Amino acid sequence: MTSNDKQKNLELLEKTVGMTANQRLVVMLYALHPTDRSGAVLETAATLAKLVGMAPPVFSRTRKQVIEAGWLEETEKLGHIKYYRLDPRRMGENVVVPLRRAT
Predict the structure, then answer these.
(1) What gap in Å lies between CA 33 and CA 10, rounded to an integer?
(2) Which residues pair with 81 in a beta bridge?
(3) How far apart are CA 15 and CA 91, in angstroms?
(4) What is the crossing angle of helices 21-32 and 56-68, to 10°?
(5) 95 vs 92, residue with greater confidence
(6) Mean pLDDT in residue range 15-41
(7) pLDDT surpassing 70 at residue 97
(8) Cβ distance 48 to 59 under 8 Å?
(9) DSSP 3-state assignment of 53?
(10) What whole-number distance in Å separates Cα of residue 90 and Cα of residue 103?
């Protein structure tokens, strides 16, 4: 982990002040977990819940709260399984590419 990564994690912890401990844990899990090119965490809720020691229903309920708070966004849906990523706007990333005039 680089110094820049550590700084981003500290900033994320600062931004999540006011959330419950479980909500912050879910946000940090999505921030630190390996992702695909789109930023999606390609693990099921049951796998992620086990990773952080939560019961799957508690994890799903907490993740729903985090989604409603605007921290996670759905990226893909394969069958009945939904995949999520940390919303890049929450970390101050510019997600809009400026348009250029075609000449």
Answers:
(1) 16
(2) 78
(3) 9
(4) 80
(5) 92
(6) 92
(7) no
(8) yes
(9) coil
(10) 35
- Report which of 99, 92, 73 is spatially closest to residue 84, judged by C-alpha positions: 73
Tell me the CATH class for 3-90: mainly alpha
Rounded distance, CA 67 to CA 59, Å? 12
pLDDT of residue 5: 80
Structure tokens at 32: 């630190």
d(CA 14, CA 17): 6
Comparing CA positions, the residue from 68, 87, 75 lying closest to residue 19 is 68
pLDDT for the residue 67: 95
| Cα angle 95-8-37, degrees, rounded to a multiple of 5 | 45
Residues 93, 28: Cα–Cα separation, whole Å: 17
**Model confidence at 25: pLDDT above 60:** yes
Strand partners, 74: 84
Q: pLDDT value at position 7? A: 87
Q: What is the pLDDT of residues 33-56, one digit of tens each?
A: 999 988 899 998 999 999 999 999
